[in-house]
Structures are given as C-alpha cells and as structure tokens.
Amino acid sequence: MTAIESPSLARPEPTVRVWDPVVRLFHWSLVGCFVAAMATGDELTTAHIVIGYVAAALIAIRVVWGFVGTRHARFADFVYRPASVLRYLRATLSMRAPRHLGHNPAGGAMVVALLIAVAAIATTGHMLTLDAFWGEEWLEDLHVAIVYATIGLIALHIAGVLVASIEHRENLVRAMFTGRKRA
Q1: Over the stretch 35-71, which tens digit does the pLDDT of each residue have?
Q2: Residues 104, 164: contact at Cβ < 8 Å?
Q3: pLDDT (tens digit, 9 = 90+) per residue, 72-99?
Q4: Crossing angle between the packed helical segments 45-68 and 21-40, to the nearest 10 degrees
Q5: Which among 16, 17, 19 has a CA at the least distance from the CA of 73?
Q6: How many CB atoms lie within 10 A of CB 137?
Q7: pTM for this structure?
Q8: ∠ CA(107), CA(125), CA(133), 5° rounding?
Q9: In the chain, at which end, N or C, are there fewer CB atoms within 10 A of the end residue's CB?
Q10: What does the alpha-carbon distance between residue 73 and residue 71 come to, in Å, rounded to a whole number?
Q11: What are phi and psi of 28, to 5 degrees?
C-alpha cells in the first residue's frame, strides 16, 4: 500500500448540509412520541393523551416548516406528481434510481403519508376524549386501524431508507442525525 492509498491519509468526501435542525428534531421527536404512545397505550391513559398532543403539535410545526423552512424542508422541494413517484419506484426496483440531495420522490410521498397518518391518529385520539364520542367503539377501532396502517408505513419508510442507502452508497440514517449528506 502506498502513502496515497493509505486510509489514514485519505481525504473524507465533501458533504453538504441538507437537513436543518428543525427537520431533524421533528423527525426524531416524532419517532420518540410514536414509540412512547405505543408503549403507554391503554395502560397509562394520561401519558398517552399528552404524548398524542405533543405529536399533534410536532405535525403542526412540520407543516408550517414545510412552507417557510429551509430549501430541503419545504414541500415544494420534495412533493412530486404521482407519475414521478411511480417512475422513481420502478427505477429503484432495478437499482437505477437517480440520487436526490433532499428527499427523493418516494421519500417525499412517504413524508406526506406519514404526516397525514399521524395527524389522523391524533385527531381520532382527541375525538375519543370528547363527550360526544366517549366510548364509541367504531372510533376506537378506527384509531387503532390507523395506528396499524402507520406501522406499515413506517416499515416501508425504513425499507426505503435502507434500499436508498445501499443503492446510493450513503448512510441516510446518519444524515438524519448529522444533517449532512455526500455532496
């Protein structure tokens, strides 16, 4: 091995800031809220309700940030037409999808789907605390169904992150912690 090939002398790849602190704090806080809400469930009702309101507040903040935030946080940067999402997914199946600095079309669609799903969970959860809906089994069933559908979306989200990380040879999980991606 020559001095040029030595790993200790290799220059790190240049990176650029992509995910701002608001996006990263939102993401990991929402993950924490979802896990905590699942853990508390029917056992710790007051904590479960408070966690639900925190999640709802996080969603509201992220929606506002989607319009006024930094470049890659804005919906305009990552909400694509359905045809573009389908083209991207087809390219991903052949491991030929183009790399995106911000969210790719499938990731953007997942962001929107998860925002809607968590908002629906929070809304149905809130409704269950109201006198008008107290004890309504259909609403409780709907709340639980949306939670399980969201778990499915989360599984797809994680799978997509892993596939994109492999396909583009970059650690997207690390990028969501550091805010930086390969230039």
Answers
A1: 999 999 878 999 999 999 999 999 999 999 999 999 9
A2: yes
A3: 999 999 999 999 999 999 999 999 999 9
A4: 160
A5: 19
A6: 7
A7: 0.87
A8: 140
A9: N
A10: 6
A11: -70, -30
